[in-house]
Structure prediction request, 716 residues.
Amino acid sequence: MSEPVVAEPDLPEEAEAEVVETGPDLSDDAELEAALESVLLVIDSPAGEKLLAEVFGQSVKRVTQTLKRMSARYTESGSGIDLRRIGDGWRFYTRDRYAPYVEKLLLDGQRAKLTRAALETLAVIAYRQPVTRARIAAVRGVNVDGVIRTLVARGLISEIGTDSDTGGILYRTTELFLERLGLSSLADLPPIAPLLPEVDAIDDV
Amino acid sequence: MSEPVVAEPDLPEEAEAEVVETGPDLSDDAELEAALESVLLVIDSPAGEKLLAEVFGQSVKRVTQTLKRMSARYTESGSGIDLRRIGDGWRFYTRDRYAPYVEKLLLDGQRAKLTRAALETLAVIAYRQPVTRARIAAVRGVNVDGVIRTLVARGLISEIGTDSDTGGILYRTTELFLERLGLSSLADLPPIAPLLPEVDAIDDV
Amino acid sequence: MTTPDATRREPAEPVPPGPAPARTEPARTEQAQVDPAQRADPADHGTSGRFKVKLTNFEGPFDLLLQLISAHTLDVTEVALHTVTDDFIAYIRAMGDAWDLDETTEFLVIAATLLDLKAARLLPQGDVEDEEDLALLEARDLLFARLLQYRAYKQVAALFGELEKGAQRRYPRSVALEPRYEGLLPEVMLGVTPKRFADIAAAVFRPKPPRTVSLTHLHVARVSVRDHVNVMRERLIAAGQLTFSELVADCEETLDVVARFLGLLELYRETVLAFDQPDPLGELVVRWIGDEDAPVVEFDEDEEYG
Prediction:
């Protein structure tokens, strides 16, 4: 009667989680390749071999060799993922031959709506402008580089000079932002609730 | 092995340039998989089978089968890329065993967890939705106004009308809630009925 | 509610469960451990601290009950409810001034049921003699059902926490577009109203709460239930009847309100009071039905409510 009888859901990651205890063995080529795949999946701008070597505690030479091998493998197998070294680092790109489908998807509006992270970052900028990237990151508790780049690209925020103290770039919201929210000026932004801590509040998403 | 690559490596290399002219032949399984890989690389929220089927002009059934096959292949080969169906669609995730390396590169590595109050409130809403605040408070025995407000602001629950009897606002969980828990749908939750006492009177409280 | 007669109801011989929904039988051994007569023995108290159970954090009365039951390493049964009544009351008293009335209400409702059960010496196998017994049994079943219900959701909440933990180890791809596609994006949509946007901002800006509620203030304030009993006795004799609001109108601290409430239950046990509450959550009217010069029944508040 007192047993927590919640049926264990089918969680394949439980087994995998145990492997993490010991950590992947990166001296194994396949493991290093897989670890590189994970990291390459989330980076926003090209990552240099030196940075990646530091992340994995491997030599620059080995990481470089591994990246080249992976890139060749993706190409040979005709994967839709294209690993290329452009500028000063490596990044995943879509393979050229499938670009028409990517374009169709984007035109259909798959990325038209802002993500939650983008919305939260935009909220910080709207209510704290002008504000630096570091300040935004401090409020949200996360790295916001990619999101800020996206918001600039979408024309919702723009740079307006640098902070005199820190030298960081300052951001503000644009006319387009007001337009999209249906407001005529920043003064029309609803006041935000008093910033009292709440025991019930949940932490950052 | 860790390759997010198409299964059939016998794609004629020399023909590739010409294929681009006419476009990939998506009736070929390997081509469809590769095309899906390209598209999955650019989305920033889960993409449903229906949307993907439209983009490729293929049946929902075939696209769904292909995605499942790809996901299984990534997992079997130990790829660092994890293709999962979460919320209302498919998306690339990093494989969990490589989280430590991903977290080295991402500042938002250690993400905050939901508080117990938030989890308990979400539990009641997930199983009883649509449900009023009063009903949730009755189950938990505590006032839930603050936590409900925060969950709404965080996008984990949303309002969907009012209860016809009491006029209280009804709440339900959102796609973001499913994503947060890594679930594909509410149907993935274990049944709660076996845990509950069989007293109808509780609902009258 | 009519005048209770607590003395009439002696612990009955164990009989098969009454009209309560069939549940797991409480283990015999547990029942022996928690013999109410033993616990009421003053010799049990005194130097032995009553706060044997130290809880770090709880979310509401059901959570507290479950934690107390678990701390006594009991199964969740009606018997367990009996066992933890004293602890439960002790927590309410100690926490009194740290809560607002909103939070306290539900605790008081549950405390009242627990005390009713204890006062009536109603064992799980309670024999049904009259309507009053039946009402008490129903109250017990409802409380027990709500406790089990809460436990079910609490277990699910724990599962949610695990799922979240697993999901947090998988990072979704969410990167800026390759430059070649940047011109293709359709017009951006925020998808929220200004009000929602402000709510999101507020949620982001809100200071992160500490993970646990400090209980360092436990044991700080002590209020004498006896004093409150005496105050209320005088007032009720003078006025004949008063509402609960009137009785607590002069209380400055929540703890005092709690003490008055407990005091009322005490007077009720002396059978000098009657309660009227026409609607659930409606105004509680307290009527004096005792003798004006009735002898004051001495009681040891620690024994009963510690």
